[in-house]
Amino acid sequence: FFLTRKFIIKMMRPHVWGPYLVACLCIACMPRPRSIVSAVPLGNRGHKARSLDDVQSPEVGIFFTSCFKIGPYASAVHPQDVLGGHADDISLLHHSHPHEVLQQRGQEELKGKTGEWAADGDIELTAFASDGSTVVQRSGSTVTVTWKGVPWLAMPFEYWIGVWLEGENTTETAPIKFHFVAPDLSIPDTLRTSYTMSRDNASTSQQVLGLPKRQGHVSFYLLNYRRRMVVRMMRGRTQQWQVASSAPLTFANLEGEPTNGHISIHPMAPSQGVFERFIAGTSAVGVHWSTGMHVAAGGATQRVQYGFATGNLTMEAIVWRAETYSSADMCGGIASSRGYRAPGLQLSAIVQGLVPGARIFYRYGSQEDGWSEEAVFVAPYTPSAGGSGVAEPLTRIFAFGDLGQHSPDDSFQHCDCAASRRTIDGIGRLVKKDGLLPLPPAHLVLHIGDLSYAKGYAAEWDALSDQIEPLARGVPYMTAIGNHERDWPDSGSNVGHEDSGGECGVAYAARFPMPLPMPLAASLSTSARGAKEGAARVAQKNRPWYSFDQGLVHIAVLSSEHPAAEQVAWLQADLKAVNRNATPWIIVAQHRPMYVTGIDGSAFAWRKGEDYDVAAQMRQAYEAVLARWRVDLVLAGHHHSYQRTCPILNMTCAPQVAASRRTQRRETGSGAHLEYHGPVHVIVGMGGYANSPIMTPAAHQFVFTDSLHHGFSRISATRQNLTFEYLVPDVLGAHASITSKPREEGCTILDHFVMPVQRLH
Questions:
Q1: For residue range 264-276, what is the model confidence (pLDDT) as tens digits?
Q2: Among positive and negative, which fits the CA dihedral 510, 515, 517, 520?
Q3: pLDDT in tens, 493-515
Q4: I need a labelling partner for 527 at 20 to 30 A (CA). Which of 44, 117, 507, 758 fits?
Q5: Which class for 272: exposed (0-12), middle (13-18), buried (19 or more C-beta within 10 A)?
Q6: Which of 729, 717, 728, 727 is nearest to 755 (CA)?
Q7: Spatial contact of 681 and 412, defined as CB atoms under 8 Å apart
Q8: How far is CA 411 from each of CA 55, 160, 178, 272, rounded to the nearest angstrom?
Q9: Among 95, 719, 93, which Cα is nearest to 106's?
Q10: Is the dihedral of CA 730, 734, 738, 739 positive or negative?
Q11: Taking the mean position of all CA atoms in its chain, how far away is CA 480?
């Protein structure tokens, strides 16, 4: 009786319930393991199984695409408890799959007095780099793992191969990533059919047990976590134990290699521990990267070298921020236990005094530790009042939220979002195309919350940084904090769920340092001279809202995960200071939306869901400020879909506003007074995580909605118009359902609208 008639009718459609039914059946039909093994070293080639004294059963959790639970690690029961309870009692297996019964019976017959499982005792595992050695040349390289000795009768998904850092205990730490050992499909049909024969057929059992062992290989795309790595073969799903291990793998530059590079726009500069404004007419870029802790311990000094031509990097910027964190800094949960891995040292340097539009070539690192590959960016354009006679470039912003990450080796992780890579690659192609223009646009990426979906599993932050690095080293990558970066009970977050896995903003602030709120930064320049930057970074963790300009657009980034009271005052002061002659467009962004349509498309007023409650609270807090300063566009994520409203205030679209209330007026640079009816709100949460459903018809305030695709938005601003586009990258060619739409660089433009700067309503 909780379901409305509309919801029931919608769920009766096969395209709605079909995928969920298939997924549930697949998960429900997964067989469970019935035997227990463990591991003992076997020289450099691997490990052999031995007695149950060394059985390992980690309480770790593996999730499938978009964090669905499957695979080897949910909450675990100790294998000895399983064995003592029923694993030795073959009578309990009589109703199991015949394949599994035959395997269990064969292992029972071959079990010796020492308790050794002969079926797993011969398994060997070897891991090596492209040159055949155990030395990986650089972060982001592929290694090959070969294995042999797995029984032919192993159940699908029973054996899997995972990657850990050396010294990590599988009972306490989740793997970085893993592959299932795929079933061998080359078994002759005559032997394959024998699997389904009666368990009482002794001759069939002998035939099956006489099969040779299986062998194969998988590949892993490995990142440098500044510790040696080991590859282990495990057995089991809800209970797991190790059956083989490789020799350790190391990186050629294990400690010092600079990784995870990206750049950002910084409207304030640090100088001798103090934040000061930049020189008028110039711009500045923050360069951020990771390295080993030896730098903090007095090792080589890393820095940024840059110049105006490739290979001619004659200028330097020193590191002003060196930051790390430990498990003790987390708020609890997975982030402080089985998901934690040391992040290394997070470094930042500011390249400042740049001529807007200049091409800057740069690298980071040191002679002793090695340098990153050379990259290039275009210095951000600073706003001007116009009329200078200098040609102004197009301002182009790529915005999305709720991205996640996906490994190039297609391995499984705690959270995996295959569509995220298509989103980043699609933006990269468009940026490359723009670079060929006579006057390249002023580019910017705006990632509006829910970045990696690490949720306490720290390795996935590095996976995200590696995925965006080719793009983010050349285009400023600005971010907003989301619920999966911040929310944790009793930690000061606006919504007290456990969405961050216990990170409570710590990992986000360290890995993606954004500008400080301007009043806070200004106060540091006068009252905190000589203070350490660390105090400012702590302040940023608790106040992750800020603003900046890129070209013709002023962008204010809020935190929907923190109480609004302080942010409202800050936003009021920030927007009041905007010179609309210099930056005619204002965009406000925050992770959670102020307007959203979801499961049901009727009016907002009676909704009781959390998304709608938070949206109502945010409208009450911010909408008057948005209207007072005539904000053009409000961007959000959180709901994993694309949704665009009409120009709206107080849940009322423009025609109704004009008829029902005194219309606010906007004074343009020409002096004409034009009516203003509120900003357009757009949800761009379709970056890569599993789509959120939208039940049609959507509420009448929404002009366009889509929850079937993943992609990104592109905003192009001139002094005359702002053009907004929703682009969907291709999946194995063009989407069949949208091939009639305009296309560009392997992307389909699914929605667009144009907003004139002098718009009459």
A1: 998 765 544 445 5
A2: positive
A3: 888 889 999 999 999 999 999 98
A4: 507
A5: exposed
A6: 717
A7: no
A8: 25, 11, 6, 45
A9: 93
A10: positive
A11: 13
